[in-house]
Amino acid sequence: MAGLLASFLRARGVLVLGVAGAALFYLDMLDEALAFAQAYGWFLLLGAGVVLYADHHLGQLLVRWDVARSLQVANDPSRVDILRIEARKARERQQLELEAQSKAHKEAAAVKKKEARKPAASPRRPEHDDYNPLTGATSTARYKPSGFARPRGG
């Protein structure tokens, strides 16, 4: 009877050897990468800083160029003339709408003024000279407590 390790290697030996070989290869590559970083680390750090600085300023420059191009297109004389014509048409349309609204308001005010001239029917209330709200003898509303609030005598 073979040992546990021998049976494991017999069943999966090729796989284990492949994983071990890959680990050694990548460990060697990692060792070389670390050696390179140790030798040229300051240059790598300086290069990364220069790239980030250049990227920042290049981005700002591209934004300024984009804004300048947009302004140039917006102030194109042929486009400005078209916009002036459209703005004039819009103002004329708004003026016509305002005049129509003003006319409608004047007509509504005239109708309201005619209705306001008619005397309103005044409600007839009997006038009593002996008005006293404390007596309860008036025809106006007064306070009446509900059935729950009345004392029950208990």
From TrEMBL:
Region described as Disordered: 97-154
Key words, A-Z: Membrane, Transmembrane, Transmembrane helix
Biased composition (Basic and acidic residues): 97-113
Transmembrane segments: 7-27, 33-54
UniProt-recorded name of the protein: Uncharacterized protein
Species the sequence originates in: Saprolegnia parasitica (strain CBS 223.65)
